[in-house]
């Protein structure tokens, strides 16, 4: 999984920030393996804009094998909180997308046959 980090002109990008983002995103999404090809992380500070959730924003977009990209964002008081919040949202969204795909494939293969249907056919 490739992790691409982008910042706007209000965020000073440095090695420590890159390492933090890489670590948080990798730890959260590593269980999906090769199913995620790339995660784009966009960091910004909306200084001057009034936001009830905080000035710092983290937008993440995951490119998934065989599915549409998934994008989430989080606003927080600190950049680290925004990164953590967006990572949690992305992990849940990716898990849900792959879970729905797995369920759809299972039902299409006939593995979703209920026990009531088996009993109705006299098979047990």
Round the Cα radius of gyration to an integer and report it. Answer: 20 Å
CATH topology: Double Stranded RNA Binding Domain
Largest sheet: 4 strands, mixed
Structural class: alpha+beta
Uncertain runs:
111-124
Q: Strand content of the residues, in percent?
A: 25-35%
Give a quick rundown of the structure:
This protein is of the alpha+beta class. The protein has helices at residues 15-29, 79-108, 115-120, and strands spanning 2-7, 36-45, 56-64, 70-76. It has a single domain (2-97), classed as 2-Layer Sandwich (Double Stranded RNA Binding Domain), CATH 3.30.160.
Question: What layout of secondary structure does this protein have?
Answer:
Layout: E1 2-7, H1 15-29, E2 36-45, E3 56-64, E4 70-76, H2 79-108, H3 115-120
Helix pairs in contact: 1-2
How would you sum up this structure, described in words?
- By secondary structure, this protein is an alpha+beta fold.
- The protein has one domain (2-97): Ribosome hibernation promotion factor-like (Double Stranded RNA Binding Domain), CATH 3.30.160.
- The protein is 41% helix and 26% strand.
- The protein contains 3 helices and 4 strands; from the N terminus they run E-H-E-E-E-H-H.
- A 4-stranded mixed β-sheet has the order 1-2-3-4.
- Strand 3 and strand 4 (70-76) form a beta hairpin.
- Helix 1 (15-29) runs parallel beside helix 2 (79-108).
- The longest helix is centred in the last third of the chain and has 30 residues, at 79-108.
- The radius of gyration is 20 Å and the shape is globular.
């Amino acid at each position: 999984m490739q992790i691409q980090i982008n910042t706007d002109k209000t965020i000073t990008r440095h090695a420590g920030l890159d390492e933090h983002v890489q670590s948080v995103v990798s730890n959260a999404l590593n269980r999906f393996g090769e199913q995620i090809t790339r995660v784009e992380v966009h960091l910004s500070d909306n200084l001057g804009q009034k936001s009830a959730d905080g000035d710092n924003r983290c937008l993440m977009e995951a490119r998934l094998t065989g599915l549409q990209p998934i994008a989430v964002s989080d606003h927080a008081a600190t950049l680290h909180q925004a990164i953590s919040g967006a990572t949690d949202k992305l992990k849940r969204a990716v898990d849900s997308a792959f879970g729905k795909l797995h369920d759809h494939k299972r039902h299409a293969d006939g593995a979703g046959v209920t026990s009531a249907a088996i009993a109705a056919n006299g098979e047990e």
